[in-house]
Every structure is written in C-alpha cells, then in structure tokens.
Amino acid sequence: MLLQIDVNSEEALYTQLANQIRYGIARGYLQPDDPLPSVRNLASELGINMHTVSKAYNKLKEEGIIIINRSKGVRISSKVFADRKTGYETILEEKIRQLVSQSICNGIGEKRFLGVVENVFKKMRSGE
C-alpha cells in the first residue's frame, strides 16, 4: 500500500496518515493481522517526524483499528471488520453530522449528499 502525505495540505499530517491507513483497509489493500511499518521506519519512509506517525498510530489504536505490540510490532487488528457498534457508531454519527452541516451551508441537499456518499462507497469498494 502506498501512503501519500501532502505536507502543503491544511489537514494535519497525522490525520492524513490515519486516513490513508483507513482507506487502505476500506479498499482491501490492508487486511486483519497485516503488519505496518514501525514508527521509525514509516517516519523515515515518508520524511515526517516520528511523533507524527506515533500520533496517527495512537489514534488508530484508540479506534481499535491497529494493535501495537512491542514484540510483534504494529498490525491491523483482527477485529477490524467485526461488529464494533458500541462507540464507533457514535463517532460516525458525529462525523456525518459535521458533513451534513457543511453540505447544507454549501447548498447541497439531501439527495445530492446521499449520492456523493453512495459514489464514495462504490469507488472505495472497487479500488478506485
């Protein structure tokens, strides 16, 4: 999986990195129990600070997406596709609420919003 970080983006680097890993899972590039590079190796590979990678990994760990183990390294959680409703639906609902608010403020109605969401799902499932 190729991770792409845009140092000129307004989005924080750790957020970009965490999102790239989430996208890799959603697209099927990363599977449960797949290893990820160490913090040091990934930071070196991407040319970013180790603390940035660590912050992204810790965020993903909090979400239950990765497991960090000193002896086994960083891996995609084997429970990544398991039913994790408790907590995640609350997080998801809040993120959707923010997107809906932004859409309404920008004149995007419900049908158009849902169409965009549907297209994103289709593209991610097809690997685009």
Task: Summarize the structure in words.
By secondary structure, this protein is mainly α. The chain folds into 2 domains: 13-76, Arc Repressor Mutant, subunit A, CATH 1.10.10; 85-126. The protein is built from 5 helices and 3 strands. The protein has a 3-stranded antiparallel beta sheet. The chain is globular, with a radius of gyration of 16 Å. It starts with 12 loop residues before the first helix and ends with a helix. The mean pLDDT is 87.
Number of strands: 3
Spatial extent as radius of gyration: 16 Å
Count of discrete structural domains = 2
The N- and C-terminal alpha carbons lie at a distance of 13 Å
* Helical content (DSSP H or I, runs of 4+): 55-70%
Put simply, the count of helices is 5
CATH H-tier superfamily of the largest domain: Winged helix-like DNA-binding domain superfamily/Winged helix DNA-binding domain
Low-confidence stretches: none
* CATH-defined fold name of the largest domain: Arc Repressor Mutant, subunit A
Mean pLDDT: 87
**Main sheet summary:** 3 strands, antiparallel
Strand order of the largest sheet: 1-3-2
**Which structural class fits the helix and strand makeup?**
mainly alpha
Q: Tell me the CATH architecture of the largest domain.
A: Orthogonal Bundle
How would the global form be characterised? globular
